[in-house]
Amino acid sequence: MNSLQALVFDVDGTLADTESAHLAAFNHAFAEQGLDWHWDEAMYTRLLEISGGKERMTHYWKQVHPDMKDIDGSGLTDTIDHLHALKTAAYENAVQNGAVALRPGVLSLIQSAHQQGLRLAIATTTSPVNIAVLLRNAIGPDWKDLFVVIEDASTAPKKKPHPQVYVQTLARLGLPSSACMAIEDSANGLRAAVAAGLQTIITPNQFTAHHDFTGALKVVPDLADVHVEQLRAWHQH
Ligand code: XBP
Ligand code: MG
Question: Full-prediction pTM beyond 0.90?
Answer without folding.
Answer: yes
